[in-house]
Amino acid sequence: MVLIIDTETTGLRGIPEDRVLEIGIAEYDEVSGEISPVYSEMIRYEDIVEFDSKYVNIDGSRGIWIYRNSDMRVEDTLNAAKDLDTVVREVREIVSGKEVTSYNVGFDFGKFLYQEPWNIRNIVTRKIDIMKLTTSKVYELADSDSIEDKGLQERLLREREDSYYPEKWVRSIDAYRVLCPEDPMKLEGMRHRAIDDAVMEGWILKAIS
Predict the structure, then answer these.
(1) How far apart are CA 153 and CA 181, in angstroms?
(2) Which of 25, 123, 127, 159 would suit a FRET pair with 89, their CA atoms being 20 to 30 Å apart?
(3) In this structure, are residues 24 and 198 in contact, taking their beta carbons and an 8 Å threshold?
């Protein structure tokens, strides 16, 4: 059993500048091949309105990005059923002693879940980063003209060529479309929130395992 964790956060800097707003955990059974949702919670922060009003993104724009680019709203955070301490305790209980990973370990774990108050580093075993495995596989397929969706293949190769960074990571949604062309989780029904992304990343992990 491998647990795949996805977080939705206030920004990209990590703790303490940023917070986890929502967390989703999916499970991949390597024997049966089944992927299933395990845990999904938003976190209540009573000071989120003030936090949002003062927040400055890395690009200089103001206000928490996810509230303006998804269906998550400030009101969802204010009205969430559980506070940070409760969610942290539940997550630690679920992952303790388990093998865990994410689509971007350096982000989800390094910037958030290895930090206080989550501090899961010493209670889990970490599996290799899905993103690193996936990027290598996807570009191998693209370079050999083996991706079914030729428009997607062309865009991926173009983005890699145009990238400022020496390593152009493949986005999880693009990796899913390349590696799971049969669309086992029916993307049209997704909201691209933490639990949806965790399940999707479970399918990606299955495809490359």
Answers:
(1) 13
(2) 127
(3) yes
CA atoms of 31 and 33, how far apart (whole Å): 6
* Per-residue pLDDT tens digits for 76-109: 999 999 999 999 999 999 999 999 999 999 999 9
| Span between the terminal Cα atoms of the chain, in Å | 13
* Residue 84 phi, psi (nearest 5): -60, -45
Per DSSP, 167 falls in state S
Cβ pair 8, 53 in contact under 8 A? no
Q: Is the dihedral of CA 147, 148, 154, 159 positive or negative?
A: negative
Contact 202, 35 (CB under 8 A): yes
Q: What is the distance between the alpha carbons of residues 7 and 132, in angstroms, rounded to a whole number? A: 18
* DSSP summary character for residue 12: S
Q: What is the DSSP string of 104-148?
A: -HHHIIIIIITSTTT--GGG-EEPPPHHHHHHHHHHHHHHTT--S
| Tens digits of residue pLDDT in 39-66 | 999 999 999 999 999 999 999 999 999 9
Question: Residue 99, class by beta-carbon neighbours within 10 Å (0-12 exposed, 13-18 middle, 19+ buried)?
Answer: middle
Note the helical H segments in 149-193.
Answer: 150-162, 172-179
